[in-house]
Amino acid sequence: MTVPQPGAPLPGGPLSAAERAAERFTDGEWHRLHPATPLLRGGIVFIAVLGFVLSNLRERLVSFFVGAPDLGGDPIDAIYTHGWEGWALLGVAVVLLGCLAAFYVSWRMHSFRITDDAVEVRSGILFRTQRKARLDRIQGINVHRPLLARIFGAAKLEISVAGHDANVTLAYLGSVLADGLRSDVLRLASGVREAEAAAPAATGAPASRAAQVGDFVSRRIDDFLAPELDPNAAPPESVVKIPPLRLAGSLVLSGFTMFVIAVIVLLVIGSAGGAPWLLIVVLPGLLGSASFYINRFTKSLRYSIAGTPDGVRVGFGLLTTSNETLPPGRIHAVEVLQPLLWRPFGWWQIRIDTAGHTREKGAAGQPNTTMLPVGDQADVAKVLSLVLPDFTAEHDAAILQGMTSRGRDAFTGSPRRAIWLRPLSWQRTGFRMVDGAVLLRRGFVWRSLAVVPLARLQSLELQQGPLDRLLGLAEARFHTVSGPVHPRLGAMDAAAGERLFETVAARAVAAATADRSHRWRAEPTSDSTTEQRPPGEDA
Q1: Contact (Cβ atoms closer than 8 angstroms) between residue 80 and residue 60
Q2: What sections of the protein cross the membrane (predicted)?
Q3: Is the whole model's pTM more than 0.85, yes or no?
Q4: Which pLDDT value is given to residue 495?
Q5: Which of 236-247 are b and which e, b meaning 16 or more Cβ less than 10 Å from the residue's Cβ?
Q6: In 301-382, beta strands by DSSP E
Q7: Residue 292 burial class via C-beta count within 10 angstroms: exposed 0-12, middle 13-18, buried 19 and up
Q8: 431, 451 Cβ separation under 8 angstroms
Q9: Read out DSSP for 450-505?
Q10: What is the spatial distance between Cα 65 and Cα 74, in angstroms, rounded to a whole number?
């Protein structure tokens, strides 16, 4: 990794105020989380307890406010009858104090530190745990802001690393601090060490308590009204957004909608046939489906994908927001899909394979490996240029051909005898080698195009079943990290498969040797470089 020379301009540009404020947390010392963390982590429990208490006191509350008669029958009556008011209040006070004390001790014992090579978190009172994420294995960083946390100006920072259950979560941090730490950790992971001295702090009289409260309220209002993506974070031409009407249409034209329609049809037929009990059984589920659509729609609003100096940034959400940054070189496979119902509108979806995944769900409740929930061909081209930055205009033409063509083109297709195994899609089934990647096209009803960067390929398998041997066909499987993309191609000519195997094996070795896509920010120089291995590869 290139090390910037003193006095040289910083590869990532001048630091923002959030990045400068976060620098003091990357000093290798242990730091504590946001003071509201105990409430935010146990907030759901408090809300549940409050709901339980209010439900038991509902008659007394109604009687207090509107003068309704005392109906009795709740636990408070027994307390009044036996004269246990003092003991009840004492018990409530003890429970509250115990919870506050436990939360405070838990907060004191929960700390994190960021060093030059790792992010560490330690927690626990009786049983201590410590998690460590190496910077060279970082696959992405997600900043998640639940609605309750946004009210307190807090956010959750989740660092995804290669490995099973290896993620490290900092919950919760100040909202501005989370953004600054995200950028700071990625700068450390990229090998860039800033040489600028910290700007002198402004001096002045401390603000009054009223001014501090007003400033806190104004910051929260600005946070809720601010756009999901800062206009200065990325050039406008690299930003991909999803119009609300297209988002709503993609949800309506989904498999779940087909299921709901089938249930409604069966319900109508059953009710007309003298089975009205079906309405009582199914109606609650149908009402719940409405909330399903509303929940997915609101969570997907303000969706944006942009290219930043730190990598590809994906953000979404209206009330609860989430944005994840994927550094370069972390994409192992890409798949462009088109469901049948989307074809008249020219809509597509993009999914990816990465070595690490955040635990938070993506937009529309889909897995976080869904890079583009719905977009047109122009959106697909932009997103692919972000996740595969080495692609050129030649690649764009090949990808467009793989998405829309019915066959008989530059792709190496299946022979006519494959019609016995692929009666509808044998003409669309095919592969094409381009510079640094292999394209796999398949599907007639549900179109699919998989892009596998050869530098990320782990192994290639060529196999034949009994029918394949009889027809002279073969199936190729490209092994990458686990994910929703399964790069494989069946019903291909056996001889073409052998040539593909030899070509991919040779080119994958050369591509992995020459690959530098996992390096970013710093420009390579001839006199100051050190070797950094791709994430997930042991030294």
Answers
A1: no
A2: 87-107, 247-269, 275-294
A3: no
A4: 94
A5: eebbbbbeeebb
A6: 304-308, 311-316, 321-326, 333-338, 348-353, 370-375
A7: middle
A8: no
A9: EEEEGGG--EEEEE--HHHHHHTEEEEEEE-SSSS---EEEEEEHHHHHHHHHHHH
A10: 18
